[in-house]
């Protein structure tokens, strides 16, 4: 079983590595660095404005830390055929899951530590916590998270209940209460509770080795869902086989396509417009990037950073529309239509122009809100328009051509 | 409408699956394309509809090749693939609208025939459904409706009978019969020999990427030295045994 786990892990990591390499390409790195930089800039500006302890400082710290502990669960790497082929080995799966838990501890621990580290500046300034308190709470949370990973294991065996209550619920209430007590009264509470909690759950998990009955269906479904979430994330940047996005009818948006006349020239516009609005993936991407951009522009009052954010995000949305064109071009039936490739690209350009124009208008409003009517606003807004024109009429047509056949 | 396949050589990648295939489909003819799995039926069809480019030889529809006039060539063909291919984001109604737009068909007239076909296949109350809600057989019916409502003159159907319920098979055969009466041609590949024997005028037997024999049932019997009462099944088995 140990061997099975290491084999699976090796294959999994190889796979992840393949996708990560594709994601961290030049474009993404650039966006990522700017995003981090802008957020850091905003955060330090924010800290600069805090001169005394805020009344809602502690609640904010509590909420953020509570959410940080929720991140991450156990990656079991179970596969569908396991429930048929490895059914006889059920008893030995306990060992397998122990290895899985050890491996899965890394990410959540790093997350909790990082969040604590980044939050510490605010916690000491805005919430008035001493450094020793912050460290005690951070260590307590890490131990707590290590303990709560056991709940994932108990769930796999259908043993995640205390009396009539779900363990996850009880555990979260305990966490919240401990956090409140730790921040307001006595910071060591978190650590003490966490250690007790950790030992309690570890003892519970030990009983699984002898008397546990693995819930195969639940275990495999949970892992599938986890994988799907990861793949869907990767799919935003690159093509992941087997990931199909959710389709929603969105009848209330039908008016959007009304201006598209039903004639042969508009065949592809008809198709692209509906596809974009109904496919959660591309619409979601557009909305997320547009909203993040608008929020950043409304908060940052540095001319150069705003300029970069405006240009970069318009480029990014345009760039990320490419896979949608590719997806449609992979449909065999459309390749048989008596319609030329040039028309397909022209129709796609119409769609992407409409999308980017919406984004541009929204970002322009955010810029005007922050900088007012003036030269700075004008320069940023025109720069955005220039990127829009460049992406749609120079960059994309060349890029899309290679997807035609 | 005549389809001429002349000395067609081609396939995927570097390997030539098809070696100098030659056969014709005449106006008003229903032709059955028959062969073992992997014999080259689907590959032949993919060359005719223009998804693959021939490495040698020619494919002409009414004397023009895909190369001569892409749009004119494509308008003459309607294709029903073996596995249904639909747009996940479009409803059934929108699939029909899109096909009408793509082929530049008359909106009202085409909808009339589409409605008739939809009724035949009991899809007329599912116009607002998405492909993900359809079963495989229903998807296949959608493909059939979208193909047979066009004014194409050559209908190419890949394995139409597997996956359809018996009633739908019967309906499809009626539709094929009507198209034939209207002077259109139909080329279908299939393994359901008993059905195709009764409904096709001519058969093209493909083996190892070559046309082993073609002609009417009687002509085939003569070629394979078979008895008068033998059927397509017997001929098929005889052809397959030639390899042994």
Structure in words:
Chain B: One of its GO terms (molecular function) is ATP binding. Chain B: It comes from Companilactobacillus mindensis DSM 14500. Chain B: InterPro entries: AAA+_ATPase, ABC_transporter-like_ATP-bd, ABC_transporter-like_CS, ABC_Transporter_VariousFunc, P-loop_NTPase. Chain B: This is Drug ABC exporter, ATP-binding subunit. Chain B: It holds the Pfam family ABC_tran. The complex is a heterodimer of chains A (405) and B (244). Chain A has 405 residues and is mostly helical. Chain A folds into two domains: 2-234, no CATH class; 251-401. In chain A, 75% of the residues lie in helices and 1% in strands. Chain A contains 18 helices and two strands. Chain A has helices at residues 2-23, 26-49, 57-70, 82-85, 93-104, 106-125, 131-156, 167-184, 188-206, 208-211, 216-235, 267-278, 280-299, 303-320, 322-329, 332-335, 341-371, 375-401; strands spanning 161-162, 165-166. In chain A, strands 1-2 form a two-stranded antiparallel sheet. In chain A, α3 (57-70) runs antiparallel to α8 (167-184), α6 (106-125) runs antiparallel to α7 and α12 (267-278) packs across α17. The model of chain A has no long low-confidence stretch (mean pLDDT 89). Chain B is α/β, with parallel strands linked by helices. Chain B has two domains: 3-76 and 152-241, Rossmann fold; 85-150, no CATH class. Helix content of chain B is 38%, strand content 22%. Chain B has helices at 41-49, 70-75, 92-102, 107-120, 136-148, 166-181, 193-199, 217-223, 232-241, and strands at residues 3-10, 18-25, 30-34, 56-61, 77-80, 154-158, 185-189, 202-207, 210-215. Chain B has a six-stranded mixed sheet, sandwiched between helices. In chain B, α3 crosses α4 (107-120). The N and C termini of chain B lie far apart (39 Å). Chains A and B meet through α12 and α16 of A and α2 and α3 of B.
């Amino acid at each position: 079983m140990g061997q099975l786990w290491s084999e699976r892990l090796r294959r999994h990591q190889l796979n992840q590595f393949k996708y990560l390499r594709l994601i961290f390409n030049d474009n993404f790195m650039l966006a990522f660095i700017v995003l981090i930089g802008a957020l850091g800039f905003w955060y330090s500006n924010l800290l600069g404005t805090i001169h005394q302890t805020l009344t809602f400082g502690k609640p904010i710290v509590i909420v953020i830390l509570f959410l940080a502990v929720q991140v991450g669960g156990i990656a079991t790497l179970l596969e569908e055929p396991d429930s048929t082929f490895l059914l006889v080995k059920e008893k030995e799966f306990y060992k397998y899951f122990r290895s899985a838990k050890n491996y899965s501890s890394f990410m959540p621990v790093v997350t909790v530590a990082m969040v604590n580290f980044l939050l510490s500046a605010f916690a000491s300034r805005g919430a008035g916590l001493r450094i020793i308190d912050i460290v005690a709470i951070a260590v307590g949370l890490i131990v707590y998270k290590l303990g709560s990973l056991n709940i994932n294991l108990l769930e796999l065996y259908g043993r995640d209940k205390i009396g009539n209550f779900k363990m996850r619920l009880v555990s979260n209430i305990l966490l919240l209460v401990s956090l409140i007590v730790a921040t307001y009264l006595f910071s060591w509470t978190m650590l003490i509770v966490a250690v007790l909690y950790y030992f309690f759950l570890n003892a519970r998990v030990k009983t699984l080795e002898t008397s546990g009955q693995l819930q195969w269906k639940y275990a495999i479904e949970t892992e599938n869902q986890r994988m799907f979430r990861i793949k869907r994330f990767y799919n935003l940047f690159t093509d992941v086989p087997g990931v199909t996005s959710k389709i929603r009818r969105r009848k209330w948006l039908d008016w959007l396509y009304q201006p598209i006349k039903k004639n042969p020239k508009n065949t592809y516009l008809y198709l692209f417009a509906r596809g974009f609005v109904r496919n959660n993936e591309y619409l979601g991407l557009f909305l997320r990037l547009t909203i993040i951009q608008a929020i950043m522009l409304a908060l940052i009052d540095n001319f150069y950073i705003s300029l970069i954010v405006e240009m970069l995000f318009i480029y990014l949305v345009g760039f990320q529309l490419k896979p949608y064109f590719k997806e449609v071009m992979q449909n065999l039936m459309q390749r048989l239509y008596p319609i030329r490739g040039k028309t397909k690209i022209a129709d796609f350009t119409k769609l992407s122009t409409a999308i980017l124009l919406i984004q541009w208008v929204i970002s322009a409003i955010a810029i005007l809100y922050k900088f007012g009517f003036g030269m700075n606003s004008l320069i940023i807004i025109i720069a955005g328009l220039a990127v829009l024109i460049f992406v749609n009429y120079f960059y994309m047509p060349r890029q899309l051509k290679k997807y035609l056949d | 409408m005549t389809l001429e396949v002349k000395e067609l050589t081609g396939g995927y990648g570097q390997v030539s699956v098809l070696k100098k295939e030659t056969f014709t489909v005449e106006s008003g003819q229903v032709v059955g394309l028959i062969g073992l799995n992997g014999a080259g039926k689907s590959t032949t069809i993919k060359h005719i509809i223009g998804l693959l480019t021939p490495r040698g030889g020619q494919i002409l529809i009414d004397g023009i090749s895909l190369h001569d006039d892409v749009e004119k060539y494509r308008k003459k063909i309607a294709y029903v693939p073996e596995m249904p291919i639909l747009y996940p984001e479009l409803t059934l109604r929108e699939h029909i609208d899109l096909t009408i737009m793509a082929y530049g068909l008359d909106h009202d007239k085409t909808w009339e025939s589409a409605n008739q076909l939809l009724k035949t296949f009991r899809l007329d109350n599912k116009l607002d459904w998405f492909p993900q809600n359809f079963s495989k057989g229903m998807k296949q019916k959608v493909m059939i409706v979208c193909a047979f409502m066009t004014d194409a003159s050559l209908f190419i159907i890949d394995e139409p009978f597997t996956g359809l319920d018996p009633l739908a098979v019967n309906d499809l055969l009626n539709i094929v019969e009507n198209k034939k009466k209207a002077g259109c041609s139909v080329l279908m590949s299939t393994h359901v020999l008993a059905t195709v024997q009764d409904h096709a005028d001519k058969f093209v037997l493909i083996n190892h990427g070559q046309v082993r024999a073609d002609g009417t049932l009687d002509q085939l019997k003569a070629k394979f030295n078979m008895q008068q009462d033998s059927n397509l099944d017997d001929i098929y088995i005889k052809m397959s045994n030639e390899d042994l």
